[in-house]
């Protein structure tokens, strides 16, 4: 449990004294406390009793929360509607819906224009916007375009084979990887209905 906590919370928890009472006392604890009260004190070897903890300890937090939440007045339908509409409005303002330029625009964070420009440049490169504009300068015949797209698709699907043979790497593991890729390709073609 302590591994997932922040160092501040860990220090706070470790510095607090353990509590003896809880929001939900267990019957076992009650039995042991009553049986301990019946026994006579042993001698100076017995540990001294701790002082009662304050109400703001970790064992009492849940009980306090339940007590305060049960005191709240139920909201009217209008108030619930208002709360939900405020949340929805805030969410839309923070993250607006996608528009015509949302994929080709970035926010400038903290006045850092160079970083925003680099992010925009990487988006344009990933989406191949400049290459499409260059191709659109001249008309591409229907058959040539179809052949180019087919060639690009095949190059994408079998890029791992071209790389492995170009480097002269033909080991058993690479062969198994190629078989796995081909099986994936066959299932993809079957699912497509071709």
TrEMBL record:
Annotated GO MF terms = structural constituent of ribosome
In the record, the note on similarity to other proteins reads:
Belongs to the bacterial ribosomal protein bS21 family.
Regions of biased composition (Polar residues) lie at: 19-46
Locate the region Disordered: 19-56, 84-103
Instruction: List the source organism.
Output: Asterophora parasitica
Q: State the Pfam families in the record.
A: Ribosomal_S21
What is this protein called in UniProt?
A: Uncharacterized protein
Q: Which UniProt keywords apply?
A: Ribonucleoprotein, Ribosomal protein
Basic and acidic residues bias: where?
84-93
In which domain of life is the source organism classified?
Eukaryota
Q: Name one GO biological process term.
A: mitochondrial translational initiation
GO CC term (a single one): mitochondrial small ribosomal subunit
